[in-house]
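Quick review question:
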């Protein structure tokens, strides 16, 4: 039975017959790789250490879903902070758009957890255990003992990563207790940790680069986010073509295919910017090494823009370090992104400051809208206060703009426990003649005597006569 083969390669991770093409990139430790490695180690150390850091006595990051409390940089947010969450997500989204418009997929190649852990933790261990890549390409596959050792190491690392990830949601104290105790005492947490471990192991042991080329939607957005002036990793066709062996071509590309061997997603950068390119710069390091050996200038593959390549603006002598010009940044797309991002950050800062101590809601009382008591009209008002701090708070309720009105409350000031909410029922009594067409506008103030104050407008209802 014959196999139907595609006329062209559909995905770099698939062979012509549809089977999985395992990509084992060759390592080139050039200047970009060394910079990425230093950044990757710093990011992995930060990810591991961040749950243990305390700011103002609170974890730097704790996403306590069970108790609906989210602590970020020492500040605790509650589920009522829907506006803050919306502004934060919008700021992140616009920030990604801005970063992509300016520097292409720099996030994917330099800071994405998938790339960081794959290329600087799991892949180095694989190279160490499996042995020389050249020998494996000649047909010498790793022994069964090496494969078992590699996957056991991968599984142990996946468990560590899963436990660190879990500490962001339960805290380091609870995690330490769970690790020391039996899994039967906390089966749900153990199941979550086990599932996360299996997912991490599946990703880095099997799925690998397909997370970037198949699953991640970011690559499919880059066509809309990039423009001709965006910084990308590109091959200089004008300088490299026609390609061929040294001495038999007028172009600088000797067709050694080292850039293809180095690519962790299996593409040929010489075919132009492609969806699978994550901007990891391994092809740059590989090509620069070849250029050094044959005595030609670096930068055949380099950081540049489509516009710069098209207009031949850059010199051919050592152009690998692309320098942005001011006019490259001052373009409508970038300016709009910057303006929107600044507006969102300003709104986020203002909203965060406004909800620093407590959330106050002024609600109309249950039952009749008002009660007439002789010459007085009584309105029932409910004041809901949510204490956002980690300390007990006493909130005083008063009525502004109504010197002839009287406030009656069974509890004033109202005591609210840390991160709890309480509702106070108050009665506002105002003279009947002070109402116009059955209404009177006042203001209700809630304060704690320590700088916090909320003033909410409220309309009292009364008889129309």
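Suggested answer, residue by residue:
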């Amino acid at each position: 039975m014959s196999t139907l083969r595609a006329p062209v390669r559909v995905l770099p991770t698939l062979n012509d017959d549809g089977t999985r093409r395992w990509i084992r990139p060759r390592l080139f430790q050039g200047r970009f790789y060394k910079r990425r490695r230093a950044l990757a180690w710093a990011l992995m150390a930060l990810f591991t250490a961040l749950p243990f850091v305390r700011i103002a006595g609170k974890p730097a990051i704790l996403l306590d879903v069970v108790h609906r409390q989210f602590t970020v940089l020492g500040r605790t947010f509650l589920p009522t902070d829907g506006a803050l969450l919306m502004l934060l997500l919008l700021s992140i989204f616009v920030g990604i758009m801005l970063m992509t418009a300016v520097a292409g997929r720099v996030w994917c190649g330099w800071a994405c957890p998938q790339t960081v852990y794959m290329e600087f933790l799991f892949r180095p261990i694989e190279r160490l255990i499996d042995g020389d890549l050249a020998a494996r390409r000649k047909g010498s596959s790793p022994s069964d003992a090496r494969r078992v050792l590699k996957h056991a190491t991968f599984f142990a690392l996946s468990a560590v990563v899963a436990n660190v990830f879990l500490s962001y949601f339960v805290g380091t104290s609870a995690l330490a207790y769970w690790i020391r105790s039996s899994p039967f005492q906390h089966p749900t947490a153990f199941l979550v940790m086990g599932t996360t471990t299996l997912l991490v192991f599946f990703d880095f042991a099997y799925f690998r680069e397909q997370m970037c080329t198949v699953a991640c939607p970011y690559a499919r957005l880059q066509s809309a986010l990039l423009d001709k002036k965006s910084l990308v990793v590109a091959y200089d066709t004008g300088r490299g073509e026609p390609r061929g062996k040294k001495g038999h071509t007028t172009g600088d590309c000797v067709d050694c295919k080292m850039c293809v061997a180095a690519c962790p997603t299996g593409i040929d950068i010489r075919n132009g910017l492609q969806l699978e390119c994550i901007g990891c710069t391994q092809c740059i390091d590989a090509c620069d090494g070849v250029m050094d050996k044959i005595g030609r200038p670096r930068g055949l593959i380099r950081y540049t823009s489509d516009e710069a390549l098209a207009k031949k603006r850059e010199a051919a002598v050592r152009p690998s370090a692309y320098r942005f010009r001011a006019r490259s940044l001052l373009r409508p797309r970038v300016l709009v992104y910057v303006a929107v991002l600044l507006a969102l950050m300003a709104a986020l800062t203002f909203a965060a400051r406004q909800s620093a101590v407590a959330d106050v809601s002024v609600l109309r009382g249950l039952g009749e809208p008002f009660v007439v008591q002789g010459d007085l009209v009584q309105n029932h008002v409910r004041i809901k206060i949510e204490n956002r701090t980690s300390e007990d708070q006493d909130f005083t309720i008063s009525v502004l703009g109504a010197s002839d009105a009287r406030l009656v409350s069974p509890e004033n000031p109202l005591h609210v426990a840390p991160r709890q909410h309480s509702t106070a029922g108050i009665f506002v009594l105002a003279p009947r003649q002070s109402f116009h067409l059955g209404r009177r506008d006042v203001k209700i103030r809630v304060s704690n005597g320590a700088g916090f104050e909320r003033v909410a407008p409220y309309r009292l209802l009364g008889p129309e006569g």
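Why it works: Residues 144-170 form the longest helix (27 residues). The longest strand covers residues 376-387.
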